[in-house]
Amino acid sequence: MKSSMAHIPAAPSTGHPRSPLSVNMDRDPIIIFWELTLSCALACSHCRAEAQPQRHPLEMDTQSCFRLLEQLTGFDQPPIVVLSGGDPFMRRDLFNIVDHAVGLGLTVSVSPSATALVTRDRLRRLADAGVSRVSFSLDGATQETHDSFRGFPGTFRRTMDMFQTARDVGLEFQINTTVTRSTVAELPALAQLVSHTGAVLWDLFFLVPVGRGNADDLMSGDQHEAVFNWIVDHRRTWPFQVKTTLGQHYRRVAIQRRLAAEGRSLSTLSRADVKRMWPLPATNDGRGIFFISHTGTMMPSGFLPIPVADVRSQNVVDVYRWFPLFQKLRDPAMLHSKCGRCPFNNVCGGSRARAFAMTGDIFGPEPRCIFDPYTGGDSSRQRHEPTC
Questions:
Q1: How many helices (H) and strands (E) in the chain?
Q2: What's the pTM?
Q3: 13: pLDDT confidence band, cut at 50, 70 and 90?
Q4: How many C-beta atoms lie closer than 10 Å to residue 22's C-beta?
Q5: Which of 118, 137, 310, 341 has its CA 20 to 30 A from that of 240?
Q6: 3-state helix, strand, coil in the chain (%, to 5)
Q7: Cis previous bond, 377, omega within 30
Q8: pLDDT tens-digit profile of 134-191?
Q9: CA pair distance 265, 343, nearest whole angstrom
Q10: Closest Cα to residue 338, out of 287, 312, 373?
């Protein structure tokens, strides 16, 4: 997230053969999240996948995984493929899948859990295989808070060791943090901690109540706004990039703040201004991203778990481009209520996953956005540290 861009968090694209700015998201996704397995040794309190100790008997086998990877090369500009779970290290064929993907010219990232399976040898093998990045989760600035969130003692210490090992073997990594009522107060301390890890990106994931995600731990609209403004206040001082996941309305806050810095009112904002102030691809569920489950079910995202097709029987390129749900999710005109009226809806659009999870209406208003497009409510006044 850089450049005139430099002031705006960017999508993770290091090592990718082309700029995401050049992607036509009606034809090509930028990132695919592929849940290789539900199996995981941890029991994290907000796990989207509701991971379990044992692998599911209907998981895609190795050859099915190879065929899917071959299909992904059919996009005009093949996407970044994020291998997640569960814990992808629970699959013994992980390195075969990685080798096949890299051999096809795909850009591959891996998102392991902080367990004993993450060894120096395995991380070195990922680096040697050509994996572009790994991501590690850090949800507390102390052993007590992180281990409580992750549901297993020792994960904080192991995560710290994973950062060091990744650096040692030359493997680029990012840190993912879930932002909730219980973690928001630790964000300033976490930012300081992330600054010393060597991470290239801090991905702040704003809770959606799916899986084990608890709606009671979802922040209020005002809290979301405060965190977004805090990010804008501090992002230029951090030695890493920052990205918001499922916090699409951060883009609106960033643009409002830039508009205010230029001494202009919201009434002067044009579509050209919006594009200039947020030149990055405005991804959302089914728009520039999609999700593949461990059994091969394709969905708009893991947090918008509406089954669309089985990738073992239908071509994934055709599904993304032509299936009605994906086409509607890429069309801002489908939004209604205040999201439909919002001047930022082409770059924000609100979290479709959160709207669906909390209201059952995929195209309804973002439940945690306080901006009122009817009155032009201004968020730029809120510039304080995040609090509980």
A1: 13, 11
A2: 0.89
A3: very low
A4: 10
A5: 118
A6: 35, 15, 50
A7: no
A8: 999 999 999 999 998 887 889 999 999 999 999 999 999 999 999 999 999 999 999 9
A9: 13
A10: 373
